[in-house]
Every structure is written in C-alpha cells, then in structure tokens.
Design goal:
The protein has 163 residues and is an alpha+beta fold. Helix content is 26%, strand content 28%.
Amino acid sequence: MTSEDFIIREIKPSDNAALAKLIRSVIVEMGAPKVGTAYEDKATDSMFENYQKKKSCYFVIEHKNNIVGGGGIAQLDNYDGNICELQKMYFLPVARGKGLGSKLITICLEKAKSFGFETCYLETLPYMEAAVKLYKKYGFKNIDGPLGNTCHYNCNVWMTKKI
C-alpha cells in the first residue's frame, strides 16, 4: 500500500461523524488525556462547520471510502497576531508511515501562506513522538510556552514555523 492509495481532499459535511470518531480513537490509542485535548472540543463533532470561517480549511485523507486521517489550519484562537494553527492532525495506523503527514503539512502550509499568514503554530504531546519528529523535520521549532488560548492545557509541546 503506497500513498497513491490515499486521497487528500477538503472536508465535506458527511465527514463529521467519521472524523470525530477517528480523532477520539487516536487520542485514546496514544494514551492522551481526554480533558484539555481535542477529545472534548465541541468542534470535534462539527469539523466541517468549524472550518467554514475565513482563512481556515481542513483536509481529510480517504482510503477505500473511509476517513483515515486529517488536518487543517485556522487563525490561532485568542491571539491578535498573524499566526495560524495547524490543527487536529490525526492519522489512523493504516495511514501512518507513508509520507501522508508531509503531504498534508505541505498542503496546509501552502493554504496558510495563500491566506497571508506569516507563522504557523501547533500544540502536541511529547509522547506523540512520530508527530513531533515530523514537525521538526518540517522546520517547526520548539517554543517555551503556548500562544493564544486553544484550551488544550494538556498539550505541553508548542512549536512554530515561519511560512
């Protein structure tokens, strides 16, 4: 199975339930807390609607008509600067290790640049090691504390990248 077996496309309203289930299952699989993470976000249940605001977009990864991953960008919440956030990037095991994370980050950052953002911010957890490694490979650098207020107080790895 190669990355050609997967389709990356913009989110549709019919993706909401599958995406919410995927995000929550990956959070549980990784042993992440359910509170202070995307697990409890109201937006997790209405991803399509949440990404209809200006300067935001969300992409899903589809394999054999099933949603197996996704990620998006939007203005960083509760922050005045021209910074977007790479958000809700989660992959089921079938989608990992195939270069799809790099493809999705590239798509998201290109979109962020077209929206006029200058910096991309993200939050994650230290034990999501593959994700942290990918972000570093992509040029994201650790910073000392959170920016804005995403309400993800259990995410204690903060990174930024100029775009």
